Amino acid sequence: MQTSLYDATFGRAGGGDIQIVTKSGTNDFHGAAYEYFGNDALNANNPFLKAAGARRPVLKRNIFGVTIGGPIKKDKAFFFGSYQGTRERNGASRLNSISSNVLVAPGLTNDRSDQTLRATFGVPVINLISLALLNARSATGAFLIPTPQASGRYSGSSISRFREDQFNANLDYKVSEKNWLAIKFFFSNAPQTLALSGAANVPGLPVDQVNNDRLLSIQDIHISART
User: Fold this and answer.
1) Are residues 60 and 159 in contact, defined by beta-carbon separation less than 8 angstroms?
2) How far apart (Å, rounded) are the C-alpha atoms in residues 6 and 4?
3) How far apart are CA 117 and CA 122, in angstroms?
């Protein structure tokens, strides 16, 4: 991964550049298994949530997989395959999970009856549509318009979810001493649920996204001698 100072070979746009090189099989069988995990028990609280008295956000991430490669025909044909899975519950993302310092009407509580609202805000009548909006709840049972903290603002964490299953398969065939045929296939399904998205900066209106990828590559590789 390169984030700066890379030359024009890698494109003209700013940002980052990621290069991935996969393995091929050999005359011996090789494999590996791995697991990476992250847990909110090992992380510090977000300073803005801590200042508002909100609990530490959930962040649980598991990335695991296996690889295997070997010969189909000695010195002639080889295979390599891999699987990687990702499971993530993320309440710490500043873009999709953290509501920070959102202004809510001071004095609003979990008691949102008509009588309480009229007394709190000193009005003779509450519009029926406004009353319905103030009492609207999400699928989790929480108010769509959250109850503010003592400051009259709301800061909190909502859990976004990400899941990915990806497979990679390589087949390399030695046609001659100078020519190889390489066939590569990549498969990935990656659904995710964003707790906060776009203009929504309070929980209750999540967005589901699906990112599926399929890639098939067939290459004739010619190896030339250099002096």
Assistant:
1) no
2) 6
3) 8
Q: Which residues contact 31 (CB under 8 A, 6 or more apart)?
A: 66, 67, 68, 69
6 is written with which tokens?
A: 């890379």
**What angle (nearest 5°) sits at the alpha carbon of residue 84, between those of residues 18 and 44?**
75
Nearby residues of 215 by Cβ (< 8 Å), 6 or more positions away: 184, 185, 186
Are 150 and 108 in contact by the 8 Å Cβ rule? The answer is: no
* Dist. CA 203–CA 131, nearest whole Å: 19
Helix, strand, or coil (residue 30): strand
What is the predicted pLDDT for the residue at 227? 45
What integer pLDDT is reported at residue 16 of this predicted model?
A: 73
What is the C-alpha separation between 178 and 69, in angstroms, rounded? 22
Only one residue has tokens 């709190």, namely 120
CA quadruple 88, 93, 99, 100: dihedral, nearest 10:
150
Threshold 0.85, pTM exceeds: no
30-38 and 59-73 as β-strands: parallel, antiparallel, unpaired?
antiparallel
End-to-end CA distance of the chain: 32
Q: What is the mean pLDDT of the chain?
A: 86
Phi, psi of 214 (to 5 degrees): -135, 130
Taking only the tens place, the pLDDT of each residue in 115-168 is 999 999 899 999 999 999 999 988 778 888 888 888 788 888 889 999 999 999
Which residues partner with 169 through β-bridges?
81, 185
